[in-house]
Design goal:
mainly alpha; Growth Hormone, Chain: A; 2 domains; about 0% strand; globular
């Protein structure tokens, strides 16, 4: 990495300069802090400033629009950015500056109809950053075997940053709802400045070769991706279902804020214990356990049918998604060692964002009651588990048939791939 840093190493007060991963961690913490300031400031105004029907129509429209960058633009522009030296670094810098500008616009539009398009512009920019961050993590970690651990650490850093910022943000919100937005804009600007120190590297110099394509189409990898998409659908569904359902409940905003806090804590807990769970459990077992947990929790909370059930289910879904992501990343790391991980995980993150949007569209469009929505979350978990098993079985059968026709052993029997 030494030849790709772009800036000469500096020593401050005799201390060694921060490494690439430490720089990315700093940027990620600042981006998360900006997100937290924005979320707390908009907790009351975004959904409660207009009628439920008007909010539902606008959210439905902007969710559909927000899918376009990941479904259309990312597959076309993403490979070009990957081949640019420092391409993803430039994306992070631009996104940070644009997010600061969006928050300044929000601060002057809290009582205006322009708040909604600005909020969804922030959503698209947030997801765009997530994709670029996924591409940058592998190039900031010297040891490929520590990639999964690095992602878990970034998730923990994000959780800690959000927790630290929450108190001051709430205090600023009491003083003036615009104050957290302005402070968040400063956090994003700081993130943009720090992003200048990220590695100026080429994520992928050439398109995927035949070996990379073969590895990424292994049954274990494809089935894990299917499971991950199902978990992201469940996350998107539960978030928007709870947001609209709680509007009609007493102290709905407070309950929704509690649900967001629980989701953050459960995600942090999952990222903390996930690596230890992985030492005792195979990747496929972790994915199936995550989906089974969502299924059981969804059915149980539908029977419970209380506001507290929605809060509990939110925590379970977010924790399961965090465990599932850890298992998915480990599956790719073990079964596709020749794949370009920056490219693979950027593409995977873009697909995850599409799954999240699809999950969010359903409760906004259908408007289920509380218990029906919880049952639907359970159904998503069950469907994901079934698709995971069915995909792995079908692809193994197809692979074995092709190997037999070619007169050679299947890859899984020849020791070329691993499935923990």
């Amino acid at each position: 990495m030494s030849g790709n840093q772009g800036d000469a190493p500096r020593r401050d007060h005799g201390l060694p300069p921060p490494g690439p991963f430490q720089r990315l961690s700093r940027v990620h913490a600042l981006m998360t802090a900006g997100d937290a300031f924005m979320a707390i400031s908009l907790a009351d105004s975004l959904f409660l400033s207009i009628s439920p029907d008007a909010a539902r129509t606008r959210v439905l429209l902007f969710l559909a629009v927000s899918m376009a960058p990941f479904a259309v633009v990312a597959p076309l522009i993403g490979p070009l950015i990957d081949r640019m030296r420092g391409g993803q670094r430039i994306v992070v810098m631009v996104v940070a500056v644009l997010r600061a500008a969006v928050l300044v616009g929000m601060a002057s539009s809290l009582d205006s109809l322009t708040l909604f398009p600005l909020a969804f512009a922030a959503l698209v920019l947030s997801k765009t950053y997530a994709v670029s961050k996924s591409a940058l993590v592998p190039v900031t970690v010297p040891d490929p075997e520590r990639f999964v651990e690095a992602n878990s650490r970034l998730a923990l850093i994000a959780g800690i940053a959000g927790f630290v910022v929450a108190g001051p943000a709430i205090g600023l919100q009491v003083i003036d709802p615009r104050a957290p937005l302005v402070t968040g804009a400063l956090a994003f600007l700081a993130a943009g400045l720090n992003a200048r120190r990220l590695p100026r590297v080429v994520i992928a110099e050439s398109p995927p070769d035949a070996l990379e394509t073969e590895e990424l189409h292994l049954p274990e990898v494809v089935a894990a991706a299917v499971a991950m998409r199902a978990l992201r659908v469940a996350v998107g569904f539960q978030f928007f279902h709870l947001a609209f359902w709680l509007r009609s409940e007493i102290a709905g905003t407070a309950w929704f804020g509690l649900a967001i806090a629980v989701s953050s804590l459960s995600t942090n807990a999952a990222n903390l214990v996930g690596p230890r769970v992985r030492e005792r459990m195979g990747n496929q077992t972790m994915l199936m356990s995550a989906l089974a947990t969502v299924t059981v929790a969804g059915i149980g909370c539908a029977w419970w049918d209380r506001v507290t059930a929605g809060v509990v289910l939110t925590g379970v879904v977010y924790a399961s998604a965090a465990i599932g992501r850890l298992a998915f990343e480990a599956t790719v790391q073990e079964n596709a060692p020749d794949a370009n991980r920056g490219r693979v995980f950027a593409r995977s993150e873009a697909q995850n964002q599409i799954a999240w949007v699809v999950g969010g569209l359903v409760p906004v469009a259908v408007s289920p009651s509380g218990w029906v929505g919880f049952a639907m979350v359970g159904a998503v978990g069950a469907a994901g588990a079934w698709l995971n098993l069915r995909t792995a079985r079908d692809l193994r059968g197809l692979r074995d048939a092709r190997a037999t026709n070619r007169g050679r052993r299947p890859r899984s029997e020849s020791g070329e791939g691993r499935d923990r």
